[in-house]
């Protein structure tokens, strides 16, 4: 255990279970947007980074909306649902995503968009012993990343989607919430609160809402696998293609070990120059004070020594530590 680590289990319900056993949380406010219509494929294909040709009933598709300058502004996961697509968003982003697409329907687009967030419930299940909890939902083998498995609890159908590491996302009709929670609790899964989930994200070095602020490209956030190199044009495609073709990815997400708390937005300095900003900070019971930051290369590499400068003018030293294997 890091010397700076402290016992915070009283305010981080489910944290230990998520690292050592299995935990779950309801993704309160998570969005679900239904997109249908005869030209739905072409409509989404020209606006998003990933190739919709990879989507199938057995495979979900992580996807990104980027600005004209190639900056990531929205993440969502796509599922096939009959003749439609379901777009699963982070909390409180469903309405914004639906509005985005509704405003971009032109006269020749045969597309319908509906925000169905209230009709669905989404869960996250995580931990190295999650298999038993998934079995309680009728899922015999945990699906691999992006794979989709069908399950059932009582009379409710559900889908489980594999994510990075030991994490799965569940989607079911909203009425299934109580039945799913009861099944997970009965299988020994502990309830995970939002603060603990954010800490686990930072420990894992995964980009989230603080990094999706319109400042960084998918490659700078480590999301290059969600950017197709072979599909046709889409918003931001030229910028992203140049980043790859001419090796212009000059920044990268990094994980910092600190001695004390830092502010979100604090400048990171190396060799007397500002090389990036802190995007998220958390105190880990196992690793001590951590931060995520997007830093100019090569200062994002593990072992790099940097300074984190607070808005009040004080500074502290920090070191870039490697990401865990996920």
How would you describe what is shown here?
- The protein contains seven helices and 17 strands.
- With 326 residues, it is of the alpha+beta class.
- It has a domain at 22-187: Gyrase A, domain 2, CATH 3.30.1360.120.
- The chain has a six-stranded mixed β-sheet with strand order 8-9-10-7-1-11. Strands 12-15-14-13-16-17 form a six-stranded antiparallel β-barrel. A five-stranded antiparallel β-sheet has the order 3-4-5-2-6, covered by helices on one side.
- It is globular, with a radius of gyration of 20 Å.
- The relative contact order is 0.16.
Q: What is the distance, rounded to the nearest whole angstrom, between the alpha carbons of the first and last residues?
A: 20 Å
Q: Largest sheet, described in full?
A: 6 strands, mixed
Low-confidence stretches: 1-7
Top-tier CATH class of the domain at 22-187? Alpha Beta
Task: Let me know the average pLDDT.
Answer: 93
Strand % is 25-35%
Secondary structure: helix percent? 10-25%
Judging from the principal axes of the Cα atoms, what is the shape?
globular
Q: What's the architecture of the domain at 22-187, going by CATH?
A: 2-Layer Sandwich
CATH topology name of the domain at 22-187: Gyrase A, domain 2
* Class by SSE composition: alpha+beta
By CATH, the superfamily of the domain at 22-187 comes out as Probable tRNA modification gtpase trme, domain 1
C-alpha-based Rg, rounded? 20 Å
* Number of alpha- plus pi-helical segments: 7
Lateral strand order in the biggest sheet: 8-9-10-7-1-11
Q: Strand tally, please?
A: 17
Q: How would you spell out the order of helices and strands?
A: HEEHEEEHEEHEEEHEHHEEEEEE
């Amino acid at each position: 255990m890091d010397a700076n680590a402290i016992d915070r289990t009283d305010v981080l319900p489910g944290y230990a279970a998520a690292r050592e056993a299995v935990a779950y949380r309801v993704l309160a406010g998570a969005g679900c947007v239904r997109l249908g219509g005869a030209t739905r494929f072409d409509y989404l294909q020209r606006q998003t980074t990933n190739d919709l040709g990879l989507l199938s009933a057995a495979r979900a598709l992580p996807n990104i909306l980027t600005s004209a300058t190639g900056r990531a502004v929205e993440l969502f996961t796509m599922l096939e649902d009959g003749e439609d697509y379901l777009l699963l968003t982070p909390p409180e982003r469903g309405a914004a995503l639906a509005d985005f697409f509704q405003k971009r329907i032109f006269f020749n687009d045969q597309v319908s968009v509906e925000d169905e967030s209230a009709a669905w419930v989404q869960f996250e299940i995580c931990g190295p012993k999650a298999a038993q909890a998934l079995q309680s939902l009728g899922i015999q083998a945990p699906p691999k990343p992006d794979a989709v498995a069908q399950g059932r609890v009582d009379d409710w159908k559900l889908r489980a989607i594999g994510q990075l590491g030991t994490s799965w996302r569940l989607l079911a009709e909203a009425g299934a919430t109580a039945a799913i929670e009861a099944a997970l609790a009965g299988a020994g899964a502990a309830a995970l609160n939002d603060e603990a989930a954010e800490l686990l994200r930072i420990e894992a070095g995964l980009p989230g809402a603080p990094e999706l602020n319109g400042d960084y490209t998918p490659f700078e956030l480590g999301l290059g696998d969600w950017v197709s190199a072979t599909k046709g044009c889409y918003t931001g495609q030229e910028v992203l293609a140049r980043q790859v073709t001419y090796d212009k990815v000059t920044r990268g997400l990094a994980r910092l070990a600190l001695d004390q708390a830092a502010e979100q937005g604090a400048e990171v300095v190396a060799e007397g120059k500002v090389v990036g900003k802190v995007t998220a900070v958390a105190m880990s019971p196992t690793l001590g004070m951590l931060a995520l930051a997007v830093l100019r290369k090569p200062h994002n590499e593990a072992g790099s020594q940097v300074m984190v400068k607070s808005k009040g003018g004080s500074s502290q030293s920090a070191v870039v530590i490697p990401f865990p294997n996920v």
